[in-house]
Amino acid sequence: MSEKSGIYPRWLWQAFALPGVVWLILLFLVPFYAVIGVAFGGVDPIFLIPVPAWNPLDWNAEAVIQTLSGFLPGGDYWAVFWRTTLYVAVALALCLLVGYPVAYYISRHARRTKSILLALLVLPFWVSYLMRMLAWVNLFAPSGYVNDFLAWSHILPDPPDWLNGNPVSVVLALVYGYIPYLILPLLAALDRIDKSLLEAARDLGASPARAFLHVTLPLSMTGVLGASVIIALPMFGDYYTPNIISGSPTTSMLGNQIDLFFHGGPQPQIGASLTLVLSLFLAVLMTYYMYSVARSTREVRDE
Questions:
Q1: In 3D, which of 181, 177, 179, 189 has the Cα closest to residue 104?
Q2: Average per-residue pLDDT in the chain?
Q3: Element (H, E) at 218
Q4: Residue 4: C-alpha distances to residues 8, 11, 17 (Å)
Q5: H or E element: which one contains 231?
Q6: What is the mean pLDDT of residues 281-287?
Q7: By the 8 A CB rule, do 130 and 167 touch?
Q8: pLDDT attached to residue 302
Q9: pLDDT tens, 33-80?
Q10: Which of 12, 104, 112, 232 is most open to solvent, judged by the fewest CB atoms within 10 Å of its CB?
Q11: Given the DSSP bridges, would you call strands 50-51 and 42-43 parallel, antiparallel or unpaired?
Q12: DSSP string, 30-77
């Protein structure tokens, strides 16, 4: 009992992390290793099912290397990788353009209606993502409300076909589906900013715009980055949004390619290899986020 913190042994607090560690091992590390085994394994020539290579000594890296070469310009997967990156970047920019002012208004100016607005932000989580996408399809159908309004208002006398290979619809659907996941972390980050810093800036003669640009915005950048990572990571692996909204190969994303190889063809090892490449790309983004958070924490500690 020499290692104690107060009246409890130290290992007691560490034991609280044990269920989470077991959960991650069973439901993340083991399945991820299974994907690695499929990527470096083979395919049964008769049943066309994957034959994982569990032993690293038996791994065949040829298929993985060939898949990696497909991500180079001119490769088999370069077009879909570039399209996915472009869709995610545009959707993320639109989410920030819409979500940051909403989070800022709720945090700074919605004193009496803050609870109501928070409840409205949480309401989308009560409806499944699939149902919200189906509602989006009904809105943008050829005889839907959007086209009826555009024709009635003469904004577009001949409304476009939103649901058959239209990249604008896919990007807008991504924004519509993921923006609640961006606003809530942004709101939490803005709420954590010390109000006395803004008062000091105003006392020193800064206008509201300068106080926002030089105090609020820099202090909220860690929250912006964290919220961006939260929605960008699942966007890269999203496959059901393009399927539901467009269903066209011209708007397919990387997640659609992975789903196609796993369920629609005799090459599941290529789908597993694509999963590893996507995981590596997302790990780079996550590493940058963790580095930025650590640097920001270190700067605050030094001050």
A1: 189
A2: 84
A3: helix 217-219
A4: 6, 9, 18
A5: helix 221-237
A6: 83
A7: no
A8: 65
A9: 988 888 888 777 777 778 888 888 888 787 778 777 888 888 888 899
A10: 112
A11: antiparallel
A12: HHHHHHHHHHTSEE-TTT--EE---SGGG--THHHHHHHHTTSTTSTT
- Looking up tokens 């619809």 gives 169
Q: How far apart are CA 287 and CA 281, in angstroms?
A: 10
∠ at Cα 160 (156, 164), nearest 5°?
165
* Of residues 231, 271, 232, 229, the one with CA closest to residue 254: 271
Q: SS3 letters for 121-166? A: HHHHHHCCHHHHHHHHHHHCCCCCHHHHHHHHHCCCCCCCCCCCCC
> Strand 8-9 vs strand 4-5: parallel, antiparallel, or unpaired?
antiparallel
Q: Are 268 and 261 in contact (CB under 8 A)?
A: yes
Closest CA to 266 of 49, 34, 40: 49
Taking CB atoms within 8 Å and a gap of at least 24, the contacts of 48-57 are 48/266, 49/268, 50/268, 50/269, 50/272
72 and 78 in contact (C-beta within 8 Å)? Answer: yes
Model pLDDT, residue 300 = 63
Burial 3-40 (b: 16+ CB within 10 A, else e): eeeeeeeeeeeeeeeeeeeeeeeeeeeeeeeebbbbbb
- What count of residues does the chain have? 303
Q: Among candidates 127, 215, 220, 209, which has minimal Cα distance to 182?
A: 220
Identify whether the C-beta of residue 166 lies closer than 8 Å to the C-beta of residue 137. Answer: no
pTM of the full predicted structure? Answer: 0.84
Residue linked to tokens 């929250």: 223
Contact yes or no for 223/292 (Cβ under 8 A): no
Residue 141 has pLDDT above 50, yes or no: yes
